[in-house]
């Protein structure tokens, strides 16, 4: 049989329509016609990606109903891995743990919290490994997924698109000291298990995840049984070192979920109550926050910034940290019967390929050569030794790894405080297995089946929050050097309960002003305290619908929700939620109306001018949540934006916009916002030339008032 296949097809976008992709490839410019014969012999029903043998007509270890197709490479004379063009099989059962977005995985599954990259590690220990996309040479899905071979560590040749231009990023050598490779090797040497995940683009998984609206699925717990280095030839003709790992299914879990039939019972979806909660977040140096995925938001005037502080949590808010307690040194491991030591470097390497043994220690001069064949290099076309891809006995799985199902959230804590970091995490639905972000203030809710876990907590008092330390040495503000910003002297206004003081910052070149309006410390704050509590009460009973809304644009798969909860009143604010997040003033909760009135009152008193606001965005930040750098550049936005701060202190940072690098990119002004303060950005130039972010110290609510032209287009 013959197929015409475009060499530039790459990954087939619609994994369920691969046969149609073949039919549509009718003699495009870069096409090779490859004549294939049904491969013989067959060994089992494993689905693998393996090189065709030298004849180009034989491929072992493929299922009887699969026809392998080899796509020749247009960049050089080497052969790509064969593409499996048969339609994917229907998924027999739903995964025990699955998600539709990367964020759902990172916020709900402690074993994988990497918003970018496929290796998630903490303290040099890999916790999770994501299999995605089209495999590299000799990657394999053996023993129906009980043995998986994959390349790890990045640095592969790839196409990158920046500002509409696609460029080839050349590959580079992987090294044992690379962070992700080092962590994987650490798991291998110390026999520490890890969790494998796949997405619907992983070409070797034989079932159709996308048809069931599954983007990510957790396979289970695996051990790394072998690790070695290879020399790989890229499409551009370069040769680079790549590390390979074999992942073997841990049998203590029972059969993999994808092996089960529709009527076979799955393992119970329960969490063994008291296991694993003694670990804390404090050693998790890979914790991911909004600042970590800030650079994924597509914006011409944003780039990644380092976090402003390390994230820690008290033990009572901690969750299970899957780190193996018992360790085994590499020297304690029993080498395989076919392992040999290199005559030059003395390092042992396994017998991996059927062609013969060679040193697989990359720094060695004899690396990637076959001593029994006169020291010639390994060819590009290789097959694995049959014994190498067999399952082998391994150390029994530690009890702490036998159940990786996320624990159910604590909905009614003993101290009744439900605004700490643990309550920002997602949930795993015990009914359908879906991972979901917490996107509603008053409850956890499964985004698939709608199962609800209601939250029961107390109303936080301002008195317990407003005295929290900001962690900075200055009291009110910090002005950077050589910014051109002028700090005006503080001025007082009003009398009695309305008394306060204002400090104004003049931006250079007439770009606008920033006003910091503060309450006098001696003035009564009962009104503000009551407003803070009213906000919380209306958010808890649903009168005020606080939600986390999807960002407008980003680079992650699935939706990416904001790192705070919000609700909008008046004119729609398209930056956050648009019309879906907006209620009219007739429907507005009383807390929002009171916040708008207070902002108008304070700005009138301090600035001696009347301001008209027709929109208020209310935002609630739990512990460790924050709003990343942005600019209020909504179409039709008026010249003045004013925000009221309630609850814990917060740091508001300003930096120049449209400057990507250099000293001018640094924060030029930081203002400490305290309970009852109002911050006013006065002038269109503030949004045009600067961007800002807010970093609360703890639980905080903010109300930001604007005027937006109702007739904008």
TrEMBL record:
GO molecular function, one term: broad specificity oxidative DNA demethylase activity
Binding site for 2-oxoglutarate: 621, 630, 692
Annotated SUPFAM superfamilies: Clavaminate synthase-like
Pfam families the record matches: 2OG-FeII_Oxy_2 (PF13532)
Alpha-ketoglutarate-dependent dioxygenase AlkB-like domain boundaries: 538-697
Record: residues binding substrate: 633
Alphabetical GO biological process terms: DNA alkylation repair
Alphabetical list of InterPro entries matching this protein: AlkB-like (IPR027450), AlkB-like_sf (IPR037151), ALKBH2 (IPR032852)
Annotated PANTHER family: ALPHA-KETOGLUTARATE-DEPENDENT DIOXYGENASE ALKB HOMOLOG 2, FE2OG DIOXYGENASE DOMAIN-CONTAINING PROTEIN
Protein name: Alpha-ketoglutarate-dependent dioxygenase AlkB-like domain-containing protein
Provenance organism: Rhodocollybia butyracea
């Amino acid at each position: 049989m013959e197929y015409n296949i475009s060499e530039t097809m790459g990954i087939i976008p619609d994994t369920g329509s691969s046969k149609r992709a073949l039919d549509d490839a009718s003699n495009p410019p870069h096409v090779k016609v490859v004549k294939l014969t049904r491969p013989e012999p067959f060994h089992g029903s494993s689905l693998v990606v393996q090189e065709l043998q030298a004849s180009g007509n034989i491929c072992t270890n493929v299922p009887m109903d699969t026809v392998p197709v080899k796509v020749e490479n247009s960049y050089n004379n080497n052969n790509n891995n064969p593409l499996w063009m048969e339609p994917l099989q229907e998924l027999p059962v739903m995964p025990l743990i699955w998600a539709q977005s990367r964020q759902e995985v990172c916020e709900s599954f402690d074993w994988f919290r990497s918003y970018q990259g496929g290796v998630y590690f903490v303290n040099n220990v890999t916790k999770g490994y994501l299999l995605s996309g089209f495999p590299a040479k000799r990657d394999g899905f053996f023993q129906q997924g009980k043995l998986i071979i994959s390349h790890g560590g990045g640095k592969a040749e790839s196409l990158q698109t920046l500002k509409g231009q696609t460029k080839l990023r050349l590959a580079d050598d992987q090294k044992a000291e690379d962070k992700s490779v080092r962590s994987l090797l650490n798991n291998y040497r110390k026999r520490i298990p890890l969790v494998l995940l796949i997405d619907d683009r992983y070409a070797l998984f034989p079932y159709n995840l996308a048809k069931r609206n599954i983007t990510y699925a957790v396979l289970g717990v695996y051990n790394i049984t072998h690790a070695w280095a290879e020399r790989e030839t890229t499409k551009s003709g370069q040769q680079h070192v790549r590390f390979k790992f074999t992942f073997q299914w841990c049998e203590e879990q029972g059969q993999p979920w994808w092996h089960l039939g529709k009527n076979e019972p799955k393992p119970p979806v329960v969490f063994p109550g008291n296991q694993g909660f003694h670990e804390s977040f404090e050693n998790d140096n890979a914790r991911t926050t909004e600042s970590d995925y800030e650079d994924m938001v597509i914006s011409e005037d944003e780039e990644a910034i380092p976090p402003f502080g390390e994230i820690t949590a008290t033990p009572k808010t901690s969750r299970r940290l899957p780190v193996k307690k018992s360790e085994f040194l590499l020297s304690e491991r029993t080498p395989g019967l076919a392992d040999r030591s290199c005559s030059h470097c003395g390092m042992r390497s396994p017998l991996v390929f059927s062609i013969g043994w060679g040193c697989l220690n990359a720094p060695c001069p004899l690396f990637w050569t076959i001593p029994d064949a006169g020291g010639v290099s390994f060819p590009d076309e290789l097959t694995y030794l049959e014994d190498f891809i067999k399952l082998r006995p391994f150390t029994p799985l530690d009890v702490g790894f036998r159940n990786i199902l996320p624990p159910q959230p604590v909905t009614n804590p003993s101290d009744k405080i439900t605004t700490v970091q643990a309550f920002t995490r997602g949930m795993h639905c015990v009914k359908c297995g879906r991972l979901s972000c917490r996107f509603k203030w008053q409850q956890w809710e499964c985004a698939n089946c709608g199962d609800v876990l209601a939250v029961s907590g107390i109303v936080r008092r301002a008195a317990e929050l407003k005295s929290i330390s900001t962690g900075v040495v200055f009291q009110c503000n910090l002005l950077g050097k050589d910014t051109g910003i002028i700090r005006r002297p503080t001025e007082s206004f009003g009398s009695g309960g309305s008394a306060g003081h204002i400090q104004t910052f003049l931006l250079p070149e007439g770009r606008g002003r920033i006003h910091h309006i503060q309450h006098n410390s001696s003035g009564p704050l009962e009104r503000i305290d009551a407003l803070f509590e009213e906000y919380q009460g209306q958010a808890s009973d649903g009168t005020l619908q606080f939600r986390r809304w999807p960002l407008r644009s980003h680079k992650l798969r699935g939706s990416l929700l904001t790192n705070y909860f919000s609700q909008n009143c008046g004119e729609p604010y398209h930056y956050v939620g648009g019309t879906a997040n907006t209620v009219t003033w007739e429907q507005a909760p009383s807390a929002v109306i009171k916040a708008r009135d207070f902002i108008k009152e304070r700005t009138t008193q301090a600035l001696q001018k009347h301001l008209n606001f027709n929109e208020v965005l209310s935002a609630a930040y739990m512990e460790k949540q924050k709003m990343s750098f942005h600019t209020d550049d909504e179409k039709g936005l008026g010249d003045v934006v004013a925000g009221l701060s309630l609850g814990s202190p917060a740091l508001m940072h300003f930096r120049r916009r449209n400057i990507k690098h250099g000293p001018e990119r640094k924060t030029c002004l930081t203002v400490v916002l305290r309970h009852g303060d109002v911050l006013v950005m006065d002038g269109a130039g503030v949004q045009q030339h600067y961007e800002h972010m807010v970093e609360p110290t703890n639980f905080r609510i903010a109300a930001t008032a604007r005027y937006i032209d109702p007739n904008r287009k």
